[in-house]
Amino acid sequence: MLPTCISNPAERRRRIAAATAGVAADHWVTLRQGPRQVCRAPLAQELLLYRVDNGRLLAGLQERLAHQPQRLRQLAEQESEPGTQELLHELLVEKARDPQGPILQELERLAVQTEPLLVDAEGVVVNGNRRLAAMRWLLVVDAQRYSRFEQPMAAVLPPEVERADLEFIEAALQMAPETKLAYGWLDRRLKLREQREQLGLADAWIVEAYRMDEPEQVERELAELALAEAYLAEVCGTPSRYSAIGDAEALFCGLAGQLTTLPRRLARPWRGLGLLLIDQRAKLDPSLAKHFPFAEPISAELAPLVLTRLAQEWGLEETDGEEGHRLRKPVLQELNSLALSGQPRERLAAQVQDQLDAARLQLRQDRIPQRLTQNLRQVRRQVEKLDLSRLEGREAQRLRGELAALFAEARPLLDSGTTSSPATAISWRRLLRPWRR
Fold first, then answer.
1. What's the pTM?
2. The domain containing residue 69 runs over which residues?
3. Which residues neighbour 141 within 8 Å (Cβ) at sequence distance 6 or greater?
4. CA-CA distance, 305 to 241, in Å (whole number)?
5. Cα 370 vs. chain centroid, distance in angstroms?
6. Less Cβ crowding at N or C end of the chain, within 10 Å?
7. Cα 230 from chain centroid (whole Å)
8. 376 lies in a domain?
9. How many domains does the chain have?
């Protein structure tokens, strides 16, 4: 429920002037005439109005009032009326929930206003409409916890500021390019490690400050940093040259995550092979990050299968076990050493990717019979449930055609002496017999 705003602009202007009287001007704003300092003061909710001309609401208002063009044209004249403010509040609360700029979530978590609203001399909010809507919404949810929002801090523009000035201020604050440089993925992890290891900050503090989803994320990010630094030291021979891997966040994060899911004996060689692929990423498939060892494999058999094939291709010690998947420890060590060696890395990386592609294709092919069997069983159960007497002629004809086509495709398999028996073909004919009538 919205607070009842004072509709008389002169009364709002008088009370706002009284609230800022004697307050030092210490908040900078950019006007058309240049930067200027203005006063800040806590203002009662009843003095604050949402601005109809808010650029974030133009599309929403036009869509909402598409069938009420007269009201849309009159909104500016009726800005202080309860109906107008309620409409703006509804749209602004929705905007405040937007995950791309979750102001509501931030204020809900902190219960503190960290930046003043910017209002004109009559209390119309020029910058901070979403924040004001979020504060009002939270006051309804829990007035005691969010009591600080009863009088939001506001920077007040001088009375001589005109409408054109307001448009300039909105454009300068909301639509100009962002000058704040985002932290790089390595900068973030280096800072995190410094805070944890050098400053001794608790993980709970880090999780809260970084707004992580879970405590385990701290360890994951530090593991990703350790892997990146190992690459720079072991493969590149240039420790701390972080600029060389600024583009490889997805690869290092993916590889670090997959290494934790592998058996310990296989993780070490895949670490080396993964670093080799990262080193040669510019010459390999651009979709590298979408596949193992940077993404989940299509089968648990993929990792040992590729290692086995590489051991054979690179002429390393023979493997044992019937399938060749039980690689010996010395072979795994040699695979890791070769991946990190000074041998032509481009050739080695291409061979690794070729074996990965071939293994993925083989495993997909091997899984087709199993998936086909499951699908056929489901089809058979559905056919058995059908009451043919209740089917219309067109539906029966369509189903008969599909089953006949399926039988034609399956005939080579049914006629094969090594994969089926005459009884299997007879069962298929019995299944299709009702559909031939």
1. 0.64
2. 9-175
3. none
4. 34
5. 34
6. C
7. 27
8. no
9. 3
